């Protein structure tokens, strides 16, 4: 099986490449200079040349704040780039595995979202993901869309590193990302890669598993609790007091729910959700090891 990974230098992409290598699955992971999703002609040319069996697209426009300011750039990437990719995969007979996001929902549901819930994106970013998904449905029947909740990793820009960086800076974290009104399932990039590998392997076995699935780590939580757990772990490496965490700074009364129900993925692929708390221990250790070696 030949796999093409797009976004191989990203948080999820790097972990996926590591796993594919350790499972001796042959893959290509061109960098953005080689394969830019917004450069439609090059995408077609390279995929026609390489003829992969499976394309896993982990690249995507992901900055929610910036998307509101530059919607055309966000749609050009998450809708038009994905649409061209779906057409190309269909043309060469490759299956497309595409990452999407909880942001296709409006966040108002009390329970975790299932695949049966109707998307109703509130933001430009959410809308771009939803439109990208619809393009895939229309253009490439052999697809798996994997919607994710919050992604965390020991590097890159995410909820965990923002908090850890601020502890490192001056012991007083930025007054963001500590809201008990933001609910989600912090899922490590490593865990997502494990799921992508399992999906890719199933596709390689010709299983008929096409469609949209949700995956998130087990145990929904809120940003404040996540920050408390990260702080407790970080206190092993830094002289930091419990007060370093600001009070819940939410002004917004409404809960925003980013939790996803992974049962359909479990039933179809046999993939169990892993708890996020134990993963945070490893994440924080890796974060400080990386900082020690770079200092
Ligand atoms: N982070 C979250 O909380 C979250 C939640 C749900 C879903 N997601 C989605 O999950 C996906 C992966 O997230 P991530 O955190 O792994 O992202 P990431 O670390 O920001 O990595 C993004 C990757 O995409 C590549 N890329 C950027 N623009 C590109 C372009 N025009 N053409 C080709 N490649 C391009 C980047 O290359 P460079 O190294 O050259 O920049 C990088 O390899 C994204 O679609 C994101 O929206 C994220």
Question: pLDDT below 50 for ≥5 consecutive residues: which ranges?
Answer: none
Helix proportion? 40-55%
User: So what's the overall shape?
Assistant: globular
* Side-by-side strand order of the widest sheet: 2-1-3-4-5-9
CATH architecture assignment name of the domain at 2-153 and 187-218 and 259-276: 3-Layer(aba) Sandwich
Named once each, the bound ligands are: NADP nicotinamide-adenine-dinucleotide phosphate
The helix-and-strand class reads alpha/beta
Write the layout of secondary structure elements.
Layout: E1 2-6, H1 11-22, E2 26-28, H2 40-50, E3 54-57, H3 64-69, H4 71-92, E4 95-101, H5 124-139, E5 143-148, E6 151-152, H6 159-170, E7 182-184, E8 187-188, H7 189-204, E9 211-215, E10 221-222, H8 223-234, E11 256-257, H9 263-269, H10 276-294
Parallel strand pairs: 1-2, 1-3, 3-4, 4-5, 5-9, 6-8, 7-11
Antiparallel strand pairs: 7-10
Helix pairs in contact: 1-7, 2-4, 4-5, 6-8, 8-10
Bound molecules: NADP nicotinamide-adenine-dinucleotide phosphate (NAP).
Describe what you observe in this structure.
The structure is a single chain. This protein has 295 residues and is α/β, with parallel strands linked by helices. It contains ten helices and eleven strands. Strands 2-1-3-4-5-9 form a six-stranded parallel beta sheet, with helices on both faces. A three-stranded mixed beta sheet has the order 10-7-11. α1 (11-22) packs across α7 (189-204), α4 packs parallel to α5 and α6 packs across α8. The N and C termini lie far apart (41 Å). The structure holds NADP nicotinamide-adenine-dinucleotide phosphate (NAP). NADP nicotinamide-adenine-dinucleotide phosphate binds at residues 6-13, 32, 35-38, 58-60, 62, 77, 99, 101, 148, 150-151, 156, 158, 189.
